Amino acid sequence: MNTLTKNVLYYKIRKACHRLAHTETKLQKQAKWLKPAGYETNIQIYNPITKCKVPLILKNKDVLTWYVCGPTVYDSAHIGHAMTYMHSDIIRRILSDHFNINVVMAMCITDIDDKVIARSNSLKQNYTNLSRHYENEFIEDMKMLNITEPHLYCRVTNYIPEIIQFVKGIVDKGNAYILKDGSVYFDTSKYEVYGKLSTPISDTSHAYKKSALDFCLWKAAKKNEPFWESPWAPGRPGWHIECSTIASTIFGNSVDVHSGGIDLIFPHHENEEAQSCCYHEVEQWVNYWIHCGYLSLQDVKMSKSLKNTISIREFLEKYTANQFRTLCLLSNYKYELKFSNDIMNNAVIVLHKIENFISDCHNYIIGNWDTGKVDEVTLLRCLEETRNSINIALANDFQTAQAMKSLMNLIDVGNKMLHDSQDSTKTCGTCIPAVAAVLNYVTTMLSKFGISNRSEANDHKMNNVIECLMKFRQTVRNKVLEQNVKDKILLTACDKVRSELTACGIIVKDHKTETIWSIKKY
């Protein structure tokens, strides 16, 4: 390379760097968070745009709309995924069970994308069958972890018409352009505050785009790929447009909370916000973003692509759902967590200590405790201080680690009194209300955090048994219905199972080829 060429190259690099720096400065100046109009909750929540905590304000009184980026169902979920959904579940339970906010949640199931297609091709399996298998597995995994179901699981393939209409709306507004092959790309130059959530990282691999930052809304179909007809070309949705469309279809032009892993900030959430603001012609689509830190192994993010994952079912062979939830409660939802046997053993020890304390309190109350010296005044004062400190911690960006620290301090105080062998006297009846009050508070808080008790765990096992029976019955019934000449004996047997379950308080409803069931509440 001669000197002239080097100088020209140097000049071009300097110019590019200057443009990038100028762009970043411009974005930083323009990017801002708009405080929503609505109802105060007295809760503070971290805001990735302002980089500080802001007040949680809801557009509807005591009702919070929440959209969750769900799984891409091409493989089994691992505990890195589980931690994100567990943290989200803990926050959801705090909002609903502690602060009495009605949380309405929807979750996307990505059942069509590059990874799904690649996996189905490698296994020589229909992509629908593959995605349904891992979707069902994911839902079962969440049940095993006692993670509350969203009100809606939304498969991308069920929203294709709405997605096409959403893309068309962006094109019609002049915020997207169409390539020769029929693919549609969002034009980031038309959205002045692109980079609201984070500094954009350029993708230089596509020379056909107007800008390296532009992203795909509609992908023209390649050979032997699943596709849907559209005004531009047969194809399928881009990744980001799926969530924008589904969330907008359900919640409209404004969402209170949108959550996902911290790795989704860019490009996924950035692109969602950009295209949704353009489509709805609003300055702010999501009012609050919640990003959960990822789980790492030996300083490397747990990822399917790195093949360093631990599946949820593999994990549950060694530990319980309550122990995993305790691990999450002892950490901050925003930060990376380095997984190891040591931190899991610590969670096991903490949970064991709590369970032992609950057992000791029960024995004290019923008179099976012959030692100890309970100072009622001190114990009740500690209970009140604990209640106040936990309320403050949970209202301050859901600081469960601080809340758990306060709870464990209360348990330490109670344990010291219950196990005080010096000058101990037989249980004094007047101290029972204080111990019962502490026991009630501890178990109530654990329930609010999602730590299930034994009866809840047994209920979950029974639900799994019922679900297995329902699947078997549905398979038999569907096979009979497919036959030209119906097997009346098998149909009668299916009806008998339904009647007997109804007598046990389990309602079974058949809808063509699908069956749903529920348990009578009263």
Quick summary:
With 522 residues, this protein is α/β, with parallel strands linked by helices. 50% of the residues lie in helices and 16% in strands.
Description:
The strands form 5 sheets. A 5-stranded parallel sheet has the order 5-4-3-10-11, with helices on both faces. Strand 3 (63-68), helix 2 and strand 4 form a beta-alpha-beta unit. The protein contains 15 helices and 16 strands. It folds into 3 domains: 41-321, HUPs (Rossmann fold), CATH 3.40.50.620; 347-449, Isoleucyl-tRNA Synthetase, Domain 1 (Orthogonal Bundle); 458-519, no CATH class. 50% of the residues lie in helices and 16% in strands. It is an alpha/beta fold. Helix 5 (160-172) packs across helix 6 and helix 11 (376-395) packs antiparallel against helix 12 (400-418). It has helices spanning 3-30, 79-98, 114-123, 127-144, 160-172, 239-251, 265-280, 312-316, 321-329, 341-365, 376-395, 400-418, 432-449, 454-482, 488-503, and strands at 39-47, 52-58, 63-68, 102-109, 152-155, 176-178, 184-186, 215-220, 235-237, 255-261, 286-292, 295-297, 300-301, 337-338, 506-511, 514-519. The protein is globular and about 85 Å long.
